[in-house]
Specification:
single chain, 160 residues, alpha+beta, 2 domains, five-stranded mixed β-sheet, four-stranded antiparallel β-sheet, 1 helix, 11 strands
Length: 160
């Protein structure tokens, strides 16, 4: 980082130093950005331990009204020094929501972390409605094609 400063009487000063940003333990959460009502997923949470010693971690998926957890929402694990672990939570999207919160907390014996990501859930009726529209348009195209082919067939028969 570099800093430049000046005083009211015009003197100028500079300073430069390096900043090291490092977190020795953290949790990674990467849920799907969009789900559909009724979707069931297994959500992996990656725990990374860059400490030079093992760490015991209590991991928790915070319950929310828009999803139900299939199984326990808490687990305890031991992560070796310089290693990582993956824990999975199973859940089902229950109700539609825009930017619903999904929060995971990892409380370690020495270091802890928490992460929250937004997830939107589309209602099933919206998906069903879009598919109905697609199939309806498909049927219309084939219906028009059948009409054109039928008229062509009629004209051909009359000309004979």
């Amino acid at each position: 980082m570099a800093v430049i400063g000046s005083t009211e009487d015009g003197e100028i000063g500079t300073a430069e130093t390096e900043i090291r940003a490092f977190q020795p333990f953290f949790a990674e959460l990467d849920p799907p950005r969009v789900l559909t009502q009724g979707d069931r997923i297994s959500l992996p949470v990656v725990l990374r331990n860059y400490l030079d010693r093992n760490q015991t971690v209590n991991l928790e998926l915070k319950p929310e009204s828009w999803f139900t957890i299939d199984g326990p929402n808490q687990t305890k694990t031991q992560i070796a020094a310089g290693d990582s672990a993956i824990k999975t939570f199973n859940f089902q999207a229950q109700s539609s929501i825009r930017d619903g919160k999904q929060r995971v907390t990892a409380l370690g014996s020495e270091y802890s972390d928490a992460i929250e990501k937004p997830v939107s859930v589309h209602p099933w009726s919206l998906v069903f409605g879009l598919w109905s529209l697609v199939f309806g348009l498909w049927s219309l195209v084939f219906g028009l094609w059948s009409l054109v082919f039928g008229l062509w067939s009629l004209v051909f028969d009359l000309s004979l």
